[in-house]
């Protein structure tokens, strides 16, 4: 196996830096899929174009699933492009589709969640306070003020990636993740916020707890919230 | 039909995975060694994608509640049926009351038990794989427990038994400088690492840390660091993606990993080599080898040819 | 050809009345050899190395016979003395085997077929080496099935 692909990729690198303004950064995820990232600030209009692109590309031959992320899109192949040339050809088509795409505006529902901030359900609220320099009440006010957009689902069944968090309460992901964060945990990771849908590990800063069922595998569709829906956090209480 | 008799955890019902629900946050799950699962199914005349039992902790034991055949593939566990040694990668016949035991493997890490007609549990979202986070699919969305009864899809099973197949570790060996080799394609943040860091990754021996499981392989070795820290937005990932968290020790995301992440991606283990990772025991060493897209596709073809050849030859016996 | 204790006993008794020193016959699956030392009553042929520790054999005056069973290839293929990647051979000369025990494998393409002992006995020797190609019904190894009875007993 020495020398196999050691220094030279037969068809060049399989990441294509942005060639045109407003274009997508494209990279390979092995032969399983590829990742398309939009440049610029994380924002809803870009996400609406991502939704539109996902809906269009999902019907292309060889594409199994289109999975929106935060201003990005993962495509999983049902049948990978037959060689590096074909892969490059697909990228050209994707860039073109992105240039032409119209934002998809989704009329979603608004879901209100009552949150108990701090206390045992919010063990890292103090860390957010320390990092931001803001008082607890201010952090809670800034967190509960916006109407958050569901940008995408990911991470675990039913989990919503939300957009619209105030950058003043952004706090970096933790160095060591918590292993068994319960469902309903409300957390901040970097510039994002979200609510855990089930028990599991998380590297985010957990600031509160809410009761909500986000996923039922027997339901159609199984995820309760969809991209385009909106969440408002209501302050039930702030615990020490 | 079998009764599971082991107290040790980590065994579960898996098929080839749950696809099409990444956009709901549902990862694929599925067998860590897909070739082993498919071969076991082929031995029984099953469709290759049917569910089997993946065993990760040893010793393990089950009892047959009915007559029928079974296939053992994956790690060589010196399995015994009523005390009699079975060869690895074998199709055998059990009678009601027979006890089947697996012992800690000397080669490989995960064993597979296939039953006639596959493991019979209700499919959820199109798959019988166990989705641990969220607790659905497989057998009640959890690991097998003592006294669980696992049904076979085909209870009145007839057919020949007492033969086996050459395992892929033997038919398709892969080594680099004396160690098992895993093929990797660069990923998005590859160039954000220094040339020295990249060279270190390819040139080093890597050991599988004890914190490795179906969620991910944590590699122990030299530190691989970014030139500058990167905060990357959450995006979809697939099994095989190699993330480098701030600590500098690579983590290879696997079948039960979150289907999305935000750590820098150095590369992706090619899909065709995921089974090799699935059979890498904790504490053992390996090397990574860089390949390109075409080579990775060719590797998928080789796996497919191995299975096709197997199916073709088995057709003469079953 | 089936050989059982009574038949062996009758053969030995008959042989004792002749001047025949050694008698061997069989078919491609089984052979039987009876040898008589001159001046002595019939007893077993020289023993191979029994390093695998079989049950103790009675010495004279017990008369013994060796039944040699051939293990033959059930198909065209390659003889393997162990499953792929295993570090130890399934059996070696002198190994004690029970009926049904796996004594080797036959690889035909990707398929592995079992070679099993039909009787209880001791692995006497290999006629082919591990990895060698074999023909259908080719002898791969032989086993010695041991049966013992006291001289003078009625068969």
From TrEMBL, chain A:
Residues 24-225 form the Carboxyltransferase domain. One of its GO terms (molecular function) is hydrolase activity. It comes from the Bacteria. Pfam families: CT_C_D. SMART domains: AHS1 (SM00796). Keywords: ATP-binding, Hydrolase, Nucleotide-binding. SUPFAM superfamilies: Cyclophilin-like (SSF50891), PH0987 N-terminal domain-like (SSF160467). The keyword ATP-binding applies. This is TIGR00370 family protein. It comes from Frateuria aurantia (strain ATCC 33424 / DSM 6220 / KCTC 2777 / LMG 1558 / NBRC 3245 / NCIMB 13370) (Acetobacter aurantius). The lineage of its organism: Bacteria, Pseudomonadati, Pseudomonadota, Gammaproteobacteria, Lysobacterales.
From TrEMBL, chain B:
GO terms for molecular function: ATP binding; hydrolase activity. It comes from the Bacteria. It comes from Frateuria aurantia (strain ATCC 33424 / DSM 6220 / KCTC 2777 / LMG 1558 / NBRC 3245 / NCIMB 13370). Keywords: ATP-binding, Hydrolase, Nucleotide-binding. NCBIfam families: urea_amlyse_rel. This is Biotin-dependent carboxylase-like protein. Residues 23-306 form the Carboxyltransferase domain. The lineage of its organism: Bacteria, Pseudomonadati, Pseudomonadota, Gammaproteobacteria, Lysobacterales.
TrEMBL record, chain C:
InterPro entries: Single_hybrid_motif. It comes from the Bacteria. Residues 38-61 are annotated as: Disordered. This is Biotin carboxyl carrier protein. It comes from Frateuria aurantia (strain ATCC 33424 / DSM 6220 / KCTC 2777 / LMG 1558 / NBRC 3245 / NCIMB 13370).
């Amino acid at each position: 196996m020495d020398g196999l692909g050691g220094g030279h990729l037969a068809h060049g690198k399989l990441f294509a830096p942005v060639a045109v303004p407003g274009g997508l950064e494209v990279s390979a995820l092995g032969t399983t899929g590829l990742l398309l990232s939009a440049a610029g600030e994380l924002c809803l209009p870009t996400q609406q174009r991502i939704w539109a692109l996902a809906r269009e590309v999902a019907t292309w031959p060889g594409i199994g699933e289109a999975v929106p992320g935060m201003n990005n899109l993962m495509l999983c192949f049902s049948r990978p492009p037959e060689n590096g040339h074909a892969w490059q050809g697909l990228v050209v088509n994707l860039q073109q589709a992105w240039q032409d795409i119209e934002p998809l505006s989704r009329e979603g529902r608004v879901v209100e969640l009552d949150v108990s901030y701090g206390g045992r359900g919010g063990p890292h609220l103090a860390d957010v306070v320390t990092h931001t320099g803001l008082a607890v009440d201010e952090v809670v006010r800034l967190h509960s003020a916006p109407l958050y957009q569901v940008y995408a689902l990911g991470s675990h069944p039913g989990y919503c990636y939300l957009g619209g968090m105030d950058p003043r309460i952004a706090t970096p992901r933790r160095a060591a993740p918590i292993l068994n964060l319960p469902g309903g945990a409300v957390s901040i990771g970097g510039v994002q916020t979200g609510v855990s849908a089930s028990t599991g590990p998380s590297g985010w800063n957990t600031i509160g707890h809410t009761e909500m069922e986000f996923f039922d595998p027997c339901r159609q569709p199984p995820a309760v919230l969809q991209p385009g829906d909106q969440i408002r956090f209501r302050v039930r209480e702030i615990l020490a | 039909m079998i009764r599971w008799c082991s107290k040790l955890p980590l065994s579960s019902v898996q098929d080839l995975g749950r696809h099409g629900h990444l956009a709901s946050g549902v990862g694929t799950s599925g067998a860590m060694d897909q070739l082993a699962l498919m071969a076991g199914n082929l031995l029984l005349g099953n469709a290759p994608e049917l569910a089997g039992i993946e065993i990760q902790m040893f010793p393990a034991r089950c009892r047959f509640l009915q007559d029928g055949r079974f296939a053992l593939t994956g790690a060589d566990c010196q399995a015994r049926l009523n005390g009699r040694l079975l060869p690895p990668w074998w199709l055998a016949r059990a009678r009601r009351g027979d006890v089947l035991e697996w012992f800690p493997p000397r080669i490989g890490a995960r064993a597979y038990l296939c039953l006639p007609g596959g493991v019979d549990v209700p499919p959820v979202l199109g798959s019988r794989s166990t989705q641990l986070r969220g607790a659905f699919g497989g057998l009640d969305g959890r690991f097998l427990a003592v006294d669980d009864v696992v049904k076979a899809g085909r209870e009145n099973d007839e057919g020949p038994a007492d033969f086996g197949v050459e395992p892929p570790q033997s038919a398709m060996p892969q080594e680099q400088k004396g160690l098992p080799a895993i093929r990797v394609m660069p990923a998005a943040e590859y160039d954000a690492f220094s040339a020295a860091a990249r060279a270190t990754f390819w040139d080093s021996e890597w050991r599988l840390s004890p914190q490795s499981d179906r969620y991910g392989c944590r590699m122990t070795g030299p530190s691989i660091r970014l030139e500058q820290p990167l905060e990357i937005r959450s995006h979809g990932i697939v099994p095989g993606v190699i993330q480098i968290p701030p600590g500098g020790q690579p983590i290879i995301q696997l079948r039960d990993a979150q289907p999305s992440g935000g750590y820098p991606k150095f590369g992706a283990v090619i899909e065709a080599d995921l089974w090799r990772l699935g059979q890498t025991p904790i504490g053992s060493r390996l090397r990574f080898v860089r390949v390109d897209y075409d080579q990775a596709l060719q590797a998928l073809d080789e796996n497919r040819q191995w299975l096709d050849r197997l199916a073709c030859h088995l057709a003469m016996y079953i | 050809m089936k050989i059982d204790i009574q038949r062996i006993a009758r053969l030995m008794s008959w042989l004792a009345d002749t001047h025949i020193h050694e008698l061997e016959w069989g078919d491609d699956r089984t052979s039987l050899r009876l040898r008589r030392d001159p001046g002595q009553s019939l007893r077993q042929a020289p023993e191979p190395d029994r390093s695998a520790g079989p049950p103790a054999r009675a010495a004279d005056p017990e008369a013994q016979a060796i039944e040699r069973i051939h293990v033959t290839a059930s198909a065209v293929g390659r003889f393997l003395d162990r499953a792929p990647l295993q570090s130890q051979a399934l059996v070696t000369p002198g190994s004690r085997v029970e009926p049904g025990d796996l004594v080797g494998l036959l690889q035909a393409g990707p398929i592995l077929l079992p070679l099993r002992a039909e009787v209880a006995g001791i692995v006497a020797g290999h006629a082919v080496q591990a990895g060698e190609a074999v023909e259908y019904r080719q002898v791969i190894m032989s086993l010695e099935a041991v049966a013992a009875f006291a001289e003078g007993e009625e068969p």
